[in-house]
Write a structure and sequence with these properties.
Largest sheet: 7 strands, antiparallel
Structural class: alpha+beta
Shape: elongated
Number of helices: 2
Number of strands: 7
Radius of gyration: 32 Å
Helix content: 25-40%
Length: about 190
Amino acid sequence: MKKEYKRQNTKYKNQRGFTILESIIAILVLSLSVSGVFSAVQQSLSQAIIAKDEVKAFYLAQEAVEIIRNKRDNNQLTKINGGTGVTWLDGITNICAFGSVCRVEAINFDNIVYCGSAWGSCPFLNQDTKEGSPTFSLYGYDSLWTTTNFKREIMLEPVNVNEIAVIVRIFWTKGSKDMEFKAKTYLFNWI
């Protein structure tokens, strides 16, 4: 029987397996590669959420510019149609003086409201999140809507007698980080 045992022993001597150290190193390499993939996925999701908020901020800023532009155009059309005493900035600069911070609302285009003299003085926008509502997904200041983390503010600056600059600032927070999007455009007295 001893001979048989020796043959089996030499049989296993020639075969090699993983040692404990090799197994630990293999598990460590595998763990690092998997955690790297998870980290990349997490960062991509985080960046996608930030990009989504940046797109919202862009459209909120564009909407504010269009509201002011619409008000200017209505004033110009009133003048063209024989309206007297109307200037191209009526309802704009007499409510939101140059250098003041104001807010505008898409629901009521005539709604330009003075907020203060510095950025950050306007309230947060609210959003209609009730499905089936005729204003679903609109942003405004209706107190019955859900408060968002976006603030939309405008400031007007004089350029010359026939031109003003409209600066729109969208502010929001993402986690503990403050985010901001600013847009600036120029409006002209085209008559």
